[in-house]
């Protein structure tokens, strides 16, 4: 059975050696000294490895069960959820006003990764609640906030987001769910929503559904969509629970993975709903939630890669098979451990070098979210907006691939459910799909984010890379060769791709969109290359300053060199594909496929 | 629910336009005129789409069940197996002497792909039987052949291969199963084998297990391994069934996929076994079976990619979502079909261009197997030996990726089991693992096959590519640019990688083995590039000759151009990785991961 041990040391390295968060100007960051963040991470580590991880495989095997309109979560989930609530984890980065601890997002992200690694299906119950609470926080009236947020921040009530309908996912303008205005200012919501994560379950007294619907008589298509708060149980003005609302679960889906999370078909039958934000501006309000969710999903990709890697590494140490080609390494044993074999090393290094840089990318992104929210730093906000599709799309595509690689290390045992490696790939698979399938992320990046604010944010990103290279070149020939030069080359590829889009996308937008997936991937590689540059520099600085933990920092440098030599050069292939344009992609008439 | 329609037209194109099989000198090929092969393919197509494909999803859902030592296959399997036997399909390419139809392997391969696409788990029952029969055919005594083959060729009895034990898969030298010689020349086999596909089931009167074991007192390690015929039910000399043998199923595995196939833990408790081939030469005998199985597994990768693609394509036509960026394409509908979107096209073209070339690669390989077997063509035999790990490793790695891409086209519905796309990825996943995990294939290719017979076979392969380019260049500027030049460039990359191994692998074999996976993939790309060259040329010839089906041939050319522009350039990335050597791969002490 797989286990999970949170990479707290790596997280501390990123937070303090690399990002130096306690020295940043962002309000709230001054408190984030290493001892303080270390204590939080250790607590979270304990909870996730001891309480959540042991329920991961059993939750997968048992799944959720629907009986007479009630969904039963797997054995142990309810008790574990109580422990999570007792620890105040759901409100970690929520405002104190509503019972939260007001920690910055960078801490919430580090802890969130642990939760997702330990038990992705379980963590989604609180993850969706967090997203729904954020939307209410951003768009709700004071009365709505006061009524719903305290219970949601504590996870006494959980939340959901309801977008998809049977005939529409990406194209929400086709939506059919209706909202009929009532005399008291509320609405009656009627329609069916599908793929509703945590839509119904037995772990909370109430579920606050955020539901997209069209107000009767409003504009056609996406411009007529509004967002509504639809409680499972009606809430009285004093916060007590009233009668059951007209929201019910129709069925739960039989999915490839995340079996421990109840994915529901939800039926709304004249359910009472309350407008959240403005009429017909539902997409804007939903995007508060969606953007947060996309970053969270990117993290899920990394989290599954991390836990899968940990177990693959343990297996590579334990499993004895064959002998090292350069000579016997374990003469006292009948065979050498798998880890002596170069191709197993390659796989493990792929996993390790991706996961560590991806974590840094997410935490770096979180510092920008904090800067945007806490300091109203508009540049940081723009950069997060640009990078959101990269974090979601690239990290889940590659994160999934890494779980497949980890599974492969187990050979035949990787295919047997009992060993648990299959679950990591099955769970990770959904992250490429939900909250906007990765093709939609690539479209968002190339079709929308690149040109946003006149291309200002992508320019800022290139400047960041350029500054990093300039500031850190010429001091250490090995660092220049191993880190700076590859990063420069990759960044140049990315710029060339952007140039190709500019020059050709105007003539025919297909020339840009046919390369969108490649662009998202090359962008991701450049981001991870930058992260390895920053981590390499931090490691070099620590070594130069004289550290008692030289092995740790030297390992960081060696892992970074691997990424730079073996993964980052993928940008050249992506560029080749992009520069081949749309002609071969669009050549066939649809009928001739 | 997914459907399957066999790509018979594509198969006929490869067999006749490209490979021109009926003109080849190989004995038996003269009969293979288009009408004749077309009739066989149509029959197989009917059976696979009407009988086998409808049982695929239900077989996955129901799985196999073990009760009191008996394994029950899913509903409908038994009846379908009867139909397969009635049609004589299991003996299609087996000798007439034992009841087969003596068709060449190239026909067996085309039909085999259909069976695997339609129902991979089901097809494994006869696939393993075929492999076991081939081993008996190659290594058995006349008496053994006469006793076992007629029933195995008809699939009245099925077969298995028993290699893996709990502590050893790749490293079979660690094997513990024992064979004790008996006075009558038989052996008593005792030990446990795991991951035994089709190990026990209810569709045949007997199961002929081929079991690797060590004869007591024999040499240590792999040199003391022998192969035994161990019937589930003892067979009397007159071919009638005797008493039950000491071979029993311990449990069936709960796997990620291929649920319809019973993967068994097999216990041998002083079971009577008969030596197959020579004492202590069991690996040689097993490799007859294994090499056949590896080619079959490569085909499974392609077969799953094919059926997944067909369904993704249908969904891309049906599902309406969004509008084409270049303008509305279906004004009468609420939205355009998915297939208008460039990123969906990219995914479909990736799938289509891979699957068609991979099929050609397998059928081309099968013609060489036929040449080797029927004409004792040693060069063909050497080339097949070289290409076997490429067919197995590359086609299953990429085939799996393609099923993931096909699943992605479905968005959220791809994750729901009811839609069936998850099964294709779950089933395809095993093909990367069994019959030698793909890392072992890469090791076999680089560590063994490259240098085999003084490197003669890899030289022959390069000569083939060179000749193709030379013979077909300079006639058509577009063909040169779109097909010949990319193929030349990719082949040059592959040669450069081989050169790097030669120059650096002697100093340290890790420099070769750290690049083995990349080498296998670039080799695969060059093979598919060659196939697209051959298919492109055939299409051009047909168009020049004046065809009534110009669209078909033009579509081939367009698909080939896509592969050449978008997929084949991956060789450059693989070369970059290979040339970075083993240093970054092996840098870390095992303890520092």
UniProtKB/TrEMBL annotation, chains A, B:
Its EC number is 1.3.99.41. The keyword Flavoprotein applies. Residues 461-589 form the Acetyl-CoA dehydrogenase-like C-terminal domain. Residues 281-444 form the Acyl-CoA dehydrogenase/oxidase C-terminal domain. PANTHER family: ACYL-COA DEHYDROGENASE, BROAD-SPECIFICITY LINEAR ACYL-COA DEHYDROGENASE FADE5. The lineage of its organism: Bacteria, Pseudomonadati, Pseudomonadota, Alphaproteobacteria, Rhodobacterales. Belongs to the acyl-CoA dehydrogenase family. InterPro entries: Acyl-CoA_dh-like_C_dom, Acyl-CoA_Oxase/DH_mid-dom, Acyl-CoA_Oxase/DH_mid-dom_sf, AcylCo_DH-like_C, AcylCo_DH/oxidase_C, AcylCoA_DH/ox_N, AcylCoA_DH/ox_N_sf, AcylCoA_DH/oxidase_NM_dom_sf. Keywords: FAD, Flavoprotein, Oxidoreductase. It comes from the Bacteria. It holds the Pfam family Acyl-CoA_dh_N. SUPFAM superfamilies: Acyl-CoA dehydrogenase C-terminal domain-like, Acyl-CoA dehydrogenase NM domain-like. This is 3-methylmercaptopropionyl-CoA dehydrogenase.
């Amino acid at each position: 059975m797989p286990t999970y041990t949170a990479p707290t040391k790596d997280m501390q390295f990123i937070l303090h050696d690399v990002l130096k968060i306690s020295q940043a100007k962002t309000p709230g960051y001054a408190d984030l000294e290493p001892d303080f963040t270390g204590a939080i991470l250790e607590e979270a580590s304990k909870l996730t490895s001891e309480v959540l991880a042991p329920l991961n495989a059993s939750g997968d095997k048992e799944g959720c069960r629907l009986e007479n309109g009630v969904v039963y979560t797997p054995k142990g989930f309810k008790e574990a959820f109580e422990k999570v609530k007792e620890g105040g984890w759901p409100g970690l980065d929520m405002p104190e006003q509503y019972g939260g601890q007001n920690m910055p997002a960078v801490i919430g992200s580090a802890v969130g990764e642990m939760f997702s690694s330990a038990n992705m299906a379980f963590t989604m119950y609180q993850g969706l609640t967090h997203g729904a609470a954020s939307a209410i926080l951003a768009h709700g009236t004071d009365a709505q906030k006061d009524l719903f947020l305290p219970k949601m921040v504590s996870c006494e009530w959980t939340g959901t987001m309801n977008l998809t309908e049977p005939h529409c996912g990406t194209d929400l303008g086709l939506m059919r769910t209706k909202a009929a205005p009532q005399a008291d200012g509320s609405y009656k919501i009627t329609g069916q929503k599908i793929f509703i994560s945590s839509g119904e379950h037995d772990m909370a007294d109430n579920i606050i559904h955020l539901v997209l619907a069209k107000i009767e008589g409003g504009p056609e298509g996406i411009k007529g969509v509004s967002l509504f708060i639809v409680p499972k149980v009606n809430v009285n003005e004093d916060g007590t629970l009233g009668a059951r609302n007209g929201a019910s679960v129709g069925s739960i889906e039989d999915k490839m993975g995340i079996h421990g999370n109840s994915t529901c078909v939800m039926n709304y039958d004249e359910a009472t709903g309350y407008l959240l934000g403005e009429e017909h501006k539902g997409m804007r309000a939903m995007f508060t939630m969606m953007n947060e969710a996309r970053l969270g999903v990117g993290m899920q990709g990394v989290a599954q890669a991390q836990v899968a890697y940990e177990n693959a590494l343990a297996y590579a140490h334990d499993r004895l098979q064959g002998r090292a080609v350069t000579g016997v390494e374990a003469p006292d044993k009948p065979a050498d451990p798998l880890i002596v074999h170069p191709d197993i090393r390659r796989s493990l290094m792929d996993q390790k070098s991706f996961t560590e840089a991806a974590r840094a990318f997410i935490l770096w992104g979180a510092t920008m979210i904090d800067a945007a929210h806490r300091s109203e730093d508009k540049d940081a906000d723009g950069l997060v907006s640009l990078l959101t599709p990269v974090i979601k799309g690239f990290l889940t595509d590659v994160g999934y691939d890494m779980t497949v690689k980890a599974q492969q290390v187990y050979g035949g045992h990787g295919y047997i459910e009992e060993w648990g490696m299959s679950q990591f790939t099955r769970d990770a698979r959904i992250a490429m799909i939900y909250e906007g399938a990765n093709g939609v992320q690539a479209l968002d990046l190339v079709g929308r984010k690149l040109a946003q604010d006149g291309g200002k944010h992508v320019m800022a990103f290139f400047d960041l890379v350029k500054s990093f290279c300039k500031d850190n070149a010429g001091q250490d020939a090995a660092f220049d060769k191993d880190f700076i030069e590859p990063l420069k080359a990759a960044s140049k590829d990315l710029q060339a791709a952007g140039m190709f889009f500019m020059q050709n996308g105007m003539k025919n937008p297909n020339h840009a969109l046919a390369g969108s997936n490649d662009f998202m991937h090359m962008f991701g590689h450049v981001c991870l290359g930058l992260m390895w540059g920053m981590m390499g520099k931090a490691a070099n600085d620590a070594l130069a300053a004289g550290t008692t933990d030289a092995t740790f920092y030297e390992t960081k440098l060696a892992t970074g060199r691997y990424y730079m030599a073996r993964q980052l050069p993928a940008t050249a292939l992506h560029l080749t594909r992009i520069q081949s344009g749309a002609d071969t992609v669009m050549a066939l008439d649809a009928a001739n496929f």
